[in-house]
């Protein structure tokens, strides 16, 4: 019941922020041009600072060694999510951008805006360490594989055009890793491994800047609600199959699997990663989709519907595992 209360409180706050963004656009205080600028601010400054400041604050090299099991569980969870929803995208006969956005929406949960408060409430002593170590893998995958899934698929080059060289292809792949959030994750990992700590004088303003990411993301998303026909996603059959699988069946199956196989992890770690696996679609997926103008109404629809559905699904999963 406590976990459901935490989730409910978060959702009420998110709804208020969404309505602020929605109302501002409806009243024509600003439009798509401002939203595009806000999107750039979020992806290049606010979210990277949020990830960096959370990762380095209070995390030591000893913590990294003693709790490395969280990173192992996060890697296992994402490997299974990628495999399961790649297969389901094939089974559901989804094509091109629709297939990729479906996978992105189901793979990446809203750890930053719902998961972190929930984990901190469930595990007041170790929650900060769990979140920091999980973020190293979570954000690395989100800002590489997640970005790739949200990009539009360009038409194949004509036969007359020469195919790109191996070096060009490798350079294109490496460029995906050159973004502010991924650089922030690597820098945070370097500081932790070297056992270096930023002074409070530096961390405090970074936390203040990063704290703006949540309300600004919700306001941005609310603006997208006003400018996109997100309700069309309700006609997509994959929405209902995906929500039932991702937010109920998968986390419960993951919980059973992790308890059945011997791993160097604690039961609290298994509970934590099960909650993370049950989270609704990450808001950043809608931001990525909107930035590239790649079916933003589809991505926004998944974010909204899955967030509302999480009030039921997270409570149901929590009742089973706790």
Structure description:
The protein has helices at 2-26, 32-56, 61-66, 69-91, 96-107, 111-122, 127-149, 166-175, 180-193, 200-211, 213-227, 237-260, 267-277, 283-291, 296-321. With 322 residues, the chain is mainly α. The longest helix is centred in the C-terminal third of the chain and has 26 residues, at 296-321. The termini are close together.
Task: Give the key terms.
Na+/H+ antiporter like fold; 322 residues; single chain; mainly alpha
Supply the helix-strand structural class.
mainly alpha
CATH topology call: Na+/H+ antiporter like fold
Principal-axes shape call: globular
Overall tally of domains? 1
* CATH C-level: Mainly Alpha
Rounded to the nearest angstrom, the radius of gyration is 19 Å
Averaged pLDDT, please? 85
Distance between the termini: 10 Å
Produce a short descriptive summary.
This protein has 322 residues and is mainly α.
Blueprint of the fold:
Layout: H1 2-26, H2 32-56, H3 61-66, H4 69-91, H5 96-107, H6 111-122, H7 127-149, H8 166-175, H9 180-193, H10 200-211, H11 213-227, H12 237-260, H13 267-277, H14 283-291, H15 296-321
Helix pairs in contact: 1-6, 1-11, 1-15, 2-7, 2-9, 2-10, 2-11, 2-14, 4-5, 4-7, 4-13, 5-15, 6-7, 7-9, 11-14, 12-13, 12-15, 14-15
């Amino acid at each position: 019941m406590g976990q459901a209360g935490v989730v409910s409180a978060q959702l009420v706050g998110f709804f208020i922020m969404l309505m602020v963004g929605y109302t501002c656009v409806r009243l024509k205080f600003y439009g798509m041009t401002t939203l595009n600028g806000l999107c750039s601010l979020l992806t290049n400054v606010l979210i990277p600072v949020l990830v960096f400041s959370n990762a380095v604050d209070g995390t030591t090299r000893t913590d990294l060694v003693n709790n490395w099991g969280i990173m192992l569980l996060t890697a296992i969870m994402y490997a299974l999510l990628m495999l399961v929803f790649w297969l389901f995208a094939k089974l559901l006969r989804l094509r091109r951008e629709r297939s990729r956005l479906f996978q992105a929406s189901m793979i990446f949960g809203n750890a930053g805006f719902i998961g972190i408060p929930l984990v901190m409430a469930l595990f007041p002593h170790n929650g900060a360490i769990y979140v920091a170590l999980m973020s190293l893998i979570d954000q690395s995958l989100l800002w590489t594989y997640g970005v790739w899934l949200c990009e539009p698929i360009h038409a194949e080059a004509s036969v007359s055009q020469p195919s790109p060289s191996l070096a060009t292809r490798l350079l294109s792949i490496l460029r995906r890793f050159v973004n502010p959030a991924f650089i922030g994750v690597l820098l945070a990992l370097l500081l932790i491994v070297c056992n270096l700590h930023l002074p409070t004088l530096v961390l405090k303003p970074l936390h203040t800047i990063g704290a703006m990411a949540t309300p600004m993301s919700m306001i941005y998303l609310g603006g997208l609600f006003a400018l996109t026909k997100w309700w069309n996603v309700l006609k997509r059959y994959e929405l209902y199959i995906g929500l039932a699988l991702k937010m109920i069946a998968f986390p419960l199956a993951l919980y059973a699997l992790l308890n059945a196989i011997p791993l160097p992890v604690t039961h609290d770690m298994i509970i934590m990663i099960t909650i993370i696996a049950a989270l609704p679609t990450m808001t950043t997926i809608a931001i990525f989709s909107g930035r590239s103008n790649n079916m933003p109404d589809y991505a926004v629809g998944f974010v909204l519907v899955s967030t509302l559905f999480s009030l039921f699904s997270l409570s149901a999963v929590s009742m089973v595992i706790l």
